[in-house]
Amino acid sequence: FILETIINWCLISNPSPHVKLCLKKINSVLVEIVKRDWRSTWSSSSSAVPSGRPDRETAYPSMTSRILILDCGSQFTQLIARRVREAHVYCEIHPAGKSLQWVKDWQPTGIILSGGPASVYDQGSPQIDPGLFQLGIPILGICYGMQAACHSLGAEVKRADHREFGRTEMTVLPGEDPLFKGVRPSSVVWMSHGDQVMPGAD
Q: pTM of this prediction?
């Protein structure tokens, strides 16, 4: 599309017959290349998978890990899934309102609770079933997901004096938590929340 736009612009800005002929030939060659490449890709992928998308066994050969992302309304949920898949780990995104039995049947080896724009005290906000924490699997809560997880376990979540929005500096406290292995002690992150989990929550 970009190349076609450039070619059309050249045709308008320089209407010389020689330039027109040359650019039209270039355009026709590019179109043919794209068509041929598309046919080749479609035919090779559709022969293995009717949908044209890689199946689980092809994309994730080991399938030893299945990460369930429970979406609480974050605009970054797809990015979270992308990062998980870039690590060659299979994952799926589903609404945070899925029942505990549904989650058990899905058999995740780990769960990620995404962020979201709500407060845990908002009417109709996504709530986390405390039973998730009895499944014996790792659970990572991000932003609202962390607040909702702590709230479901009885921790106090309250409105902060000042809403954090935008560029913020994050400090990783000293410790041996493997979650922060390789993370710099100080990093620039982006915040958007008005609640906080009070100190003392486990």
A: 0.63
Q: What is the mean pLDDT of the chain?
A: 75
pLDDT at 93 over 60: yes
Angstrom distance (rounded) from CA 132 to CA 130: 5
Distance, CA of 115 to CA of 117 (rounded, Å): 7
DSSP 16: -
Sign of dihedral through CA atoms 78, 79, 80, 86? positive
- Are 69 and 81 within 8 A, CB to CB? yes
Alpha helices in 91-139 (DSSP H): 100-106
Place of tokens 């500096």: 169
How far is 171 from 166, CA to CA, in rounded Å? 16
Helix, strand, or coil (residue 188): strand
Helix axes 17-48, 2-13, angle to 10 degrees: 170
What do you get for the CA distance between the two ends of the chain, in Å? 53
- Beta partners for 171? 186
- Give the whole-angstrom CA distance, residue 139 versus residue 151: 14
**What DSSP assignment string belongs to 126-162?**
----GGGGGS-S-EEE-THHHHHHHHHTT--EEEEEE
